[in-house]
Amino acid sequence: MLVRLINQAEEAIISLLLVCMTLLVFADVVMRFGFHVGLMWSEELTLLMSAWFVLFGVSYGLKVGAHIGVDALVRLFSPLGQRILTVIAALLSLLYCGLFIYGGWIYLAKMKMIGIELEDLPIPTWIAHSILIIGFMLLSLRLLQLLWRVISGQATGFARHNEAEESMKLAEQLKQEDVAK
User: Which residues are CB-neighbours of 170 under 8 A, at least 6 positions away?
Assistant: First the structure.
């Protein structure tokens, strides 16, 4: 139930960020070139939304298998070997996430203590940069879900986007279309 709520919130936030970034950049371009007046704060807000979009997107990409992986070496192993390598990779990734969460916590605590705001927006830096912890916690959740699927035998590895296989299928379709002409 909680995971489903997190999934829906993650997708909604990603969509909202993409729409808001697009509208903000469009409005700024129209203001700048149409009326010779820019929005001073739009660049900083767009950059901030981009960071949030990327860090939410990393977690989402892992969930849906959208990341491109180089698995030529991993595929040489048996399914059990692939599962072992996936567990090792996931544990190392969790360690990396843990380091980022810890470092992010220290950074955000210092920013809150100092009380610095963003340059162009009246938002405390620690709130704007809290995506460091949120994003890596979401990524940790996805890695824990992957570990569970691998340990329980539901998966042998990371879900990957197989770009090479898709390219081969497209090439084959193009050949068939050329032959049909």
Answer: none
Average pLDDT, the chain: 90
In tens, the pLDDT along 117-166 reads 999 999 999 999 999 999 999 999 999 999 999 999 888 888 766 666 77
Nearest Cα residue to 97 out of 59, 70, 146, 66: 59
Euclidean distance between CA atoms 6 and 132, whole angstroms: 17
Cα three-residue angle 10-131-148, rounded to 5 degrees: 55
**C-alpha 160, offset from chain centre:** 14
Amino acid at 69: G
Domain count, the chain: 1
Give the domain range for residue 93: 2-180
CB-based contacts of 174: which residues, under 8 Å, 6+ apart?
none
Q: CA 128, CA 41: separation in Å to the nearest integer? A: 14
